[in-house]
Inverse folding.
């Protein structure tokens, strides 16, 4: 992504960074067993580049994610990409295309919550050879603050 002007680049980097704090390595689902709620938290490492005045790679780590009940509880690495088409960012259509890197490179599908089941979103991303899926909640409590997914 190219941006012009220091303020625009910094704003884009900050927005990406804030959004990434609610990423999940694979799938954001929890499940209930009997009357006890159980889930597996996911540590999320985000590496991003920052434009001036503090250029270079930066890494952040947070425990703001949950693995799905049937998801492998293991690391996932790769470039994070969204659906190519702005009108299908929710990845509910089986024909959703992602801006994935060249063949043979791992990539992680970044998909907003909404409009269809998590299962559909995951299936559609894996049909395009995603290594993992991150479903995020784009709702904000306050300006520049994102919250982790909550589950019914």
């Amino acid at each position: 992504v190219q941006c012009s002007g220091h303020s625009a680049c910094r704003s884009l980097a900050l927005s990406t960074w804030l959004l990434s704090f609610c990423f999940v390595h694979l799938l954001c689902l929890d499940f209930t067993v009997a009357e006890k709620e159980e889930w597996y938290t996911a540590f999320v490492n985000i590496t991003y580049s920052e434009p001036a005045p503090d250029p270079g790679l930066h890494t952040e780590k947070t425990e703001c994610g949950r693995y799905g009940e049937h998801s492998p509880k293991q690391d996932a690495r790769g470039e994070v990409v969204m659906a190519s088409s702005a009108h299908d960012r929710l990845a509910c259509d089986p024909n959703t295309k992602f801006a994935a890197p060249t063949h043979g490179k791992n990539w992680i599908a970044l998909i907003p919550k909404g409009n269809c089941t998590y299962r559909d979103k995951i299936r559609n991303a894996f049909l395009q050879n995603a290594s993992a899926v991150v479903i995020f909640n784009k709702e904000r409590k306050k300006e520049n603050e994102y919250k982790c997914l909550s589950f019914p």
Observations:
- Helices lie at 6-20, 118-127.
- The first helix runs from residue 6 to 20.
